[in-house]
Each structure stands twice: as C-alpha cells, then as structure tokens.
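Kindly go through the entry underneath: sequence plus fold tokens. Please state briefly how this chain folds according to its tokens.
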Amino acid sequence: MRWEELTGPDLAEAAKATGLCIVPVGSLEYHGPHLPLATDALNAHAVACLAAEREPAIVFPPHYFGQLNCARHFPGGVAIEPRLLGELLAAVCDEIHRNGFAKILLHNGHGGNQHLLHNFAQCELYRRKAYALYVTPWLTKPELREQIKRICPAPGGHGDEVETSMTLVTAPHLVRMDRMPKDAFPPQGRMKHLEGAYSGIWWYADYPEHCAGDPRGASAEKGRKVLEIYVQALADTIRAIKADRVVPGLQQEFFDRVDRVGGEA
C-alpha cells in the first residue's frame, strides 16, 4: 500500500494492521546520459512497493534527498547541506510515527547513502524514541550478490548494467537507450597509493564521470530477474522486522539505563 494513495482513515487502519512503514531513500543525481536523475529513488520505491505486496507494509513516497556531495559536478544533482539532511530525515520519521507507526524501515537505493543512514540510525540513539528504526542497504548477503552477478556479469556500481536493466522494467519510458555510453567506465585508481587511508574524494578519484561499470549489456529480461531477487530479499526483511520484538525491547532497556545514569542505583 502506498501512503500517498490512501485516504486518512485508510492510512490509520493500515498503520494498526501492519505497524511498519518503509521509506525508500534514494537521490537526485546524474546516472549517465541514458538514465533518469531519480533512478535510485524510483528503483528503491518500486522494489519496496512490490515487496509490500508480498509482505504487507505501507510504502512512503520516495525520499529523493541523499548524500550527494560527490556528484555536484554534473547537472541535475541535488545536494542538501549535511546537517539539514539529517534533520529532514529525522522529521520525516517523527511524522511517520505520529501517524501511528511503531516501526520504520529506511530502504536504501543509493550507494552514497550507506554511511549516512548507518550514522543516522546511530545518532537517533541520542534521544528516546517511541518507535524502532531499521535500515537496509540494497543488498548485503554475498550469495545474493553472486546471483545478480551471474545475471549481469559486467562490473559496475553506478549507471551500470544492473541499474539500467532494472530501470528498463520500473520506468522504461525514462530510459534513453539511444544515449547509451559507447564505452565502459572502469575505476581509474588515482588513490591506489593511499591504501589503508580514506578520503571523501575517493569516488571522484575512481569515477570522475560519475558512472561506474558497463551498461551496454542491459536488458529488461535481466532487469526482471534482478528485480525478483531484490523484491524477495526485501519481503523477507519486512517479515522479520514486523515479527521483531528484540530491537524495541533493547531500546527501552537502553534509554531506561541512560535515564538512571547519575541517579540512585
């Protein structure tokens, strides 16, 4: 069920029935000359909606604002000031809770959000919350990554064979196959001499054209197969989160102990 398509009373009933709201978190950024700027958000939202059909949950409208500082050198990107980015996401989560949801899942569709969302989840422990917050990346299990690699063998990471194939299914009218890049985009390795050290410029160092991989082998057939893997993985995660009683209990225990610090034993 999509949040924006429900009436107020229907949303209230759905909150009671499911208890879980999924927020697809993407970005607005350059994905090569052939893909729409909202690729990450569109695909994350499509996966969430399909997964919620298998394991009922409410899907929030796409959250288009992610960590995008590394892509500001291309047109179409929207990079929000980092502190405001966190405050905006916190406000969205608080409003979702105010509408009756005890659990919120941030479903990430943008690689640049990985550190942002993990840090956001940890920072949320700064204050007591009456809801449980969960974060999922696109895919973490090695066996699932291997399944996708067998479908789309070309190395990638951004605007690549996987993203292009998926978008040919989720938003085919937005894919410009006539603008497909003529060459692949391998990593340039301009920071190899700094192995063991991290810099925020690492993505630009490897991929200054803000594309990673080779999209030329993309097809809707591959996209449907990849989409099935993502959807089933997320549906399994939704089912586990809905049944979870551990995280809410741990949060209660943690904040109770926080409140007792400095007081009587």
Observations:
- Residues 72 and 79 are 7 Å apart (CA to CA).
